[in-house]
Design goal:
By secondary structure, the chain is an alpha+beta fold. The longest helix has 17 residues, at 53-69. It has helices at residues 53-69, 127-140, and strands spanning 39-41, 44-46, 74-78, 81-85, 88-90, 94-98, 109-111, 115-121, 145-152, 155-164, 169-177, 179-182, 188-191. The model has no long low-confidence stretch (mean pLDDT 93). 16% of the residues lie in helices and 35% in strands. A six-stranded mixed sheet has the order 3-6-8-9-10-11. A three-stranded mixed sheet has the order 5-4-7, covered by helices on one side. The chain has a two-stranded antiparallel sheet with strand order 1-2.
Amino acid sequence: MSAARDYRLDDDFEWPRPPEGGWTADDLDELPNLPPHTELINGSLVFVSPQTNFHSMAIRLLDHALLAQAPDELKVVTQMTVKLSERNRLEPDVLVFRAEAYAGTGQTWYRREDVVIAVEVASKESVERDREVKPMKYAQAGIPHYWRVEEEQGLPVVYAYEIDPATKAYGLVGIFHNRLKLTVPFPVDIDLSTLEPRR
């Protein structure tokens, strides 16, 4: 039997109580004191665990490489939410979106039709969501490309998917160890073995 965890909440702390029917995507901008990187899945708030070194370094590697390789009509950002529907607002770790969708520094989310690639770096806590829930949500929203990144012996392995317009489901394009090389949605060539901490 495990001991109960003591989270030491303030005496006046109250957990947010969802309205009838659950939260909406717009609620994420209004709810006070939400932890960073809170997502909305099927009207429920999802809190994420603290990042590991692998998670942080993989995000940085992909962010920098995509920034260098994306064409001018696309932009790259990390950890911004995407409003997929009224009850789903997810936060990919890396996001490639159409440049015209950029609305300034105060922007907090992008529309699903603006997104070209959604990238999730899986962690022990998020792997089921990243393998099962999020690909289905992104595909249903029509996001053309989904990359899931997992750790194998300290290095990233990228599972790249492309949507089939006929079925609105993702098909696996490839599993990439050491080097990620793709021609769509634009030419990408990333050395995955260069994962290292910030200097």
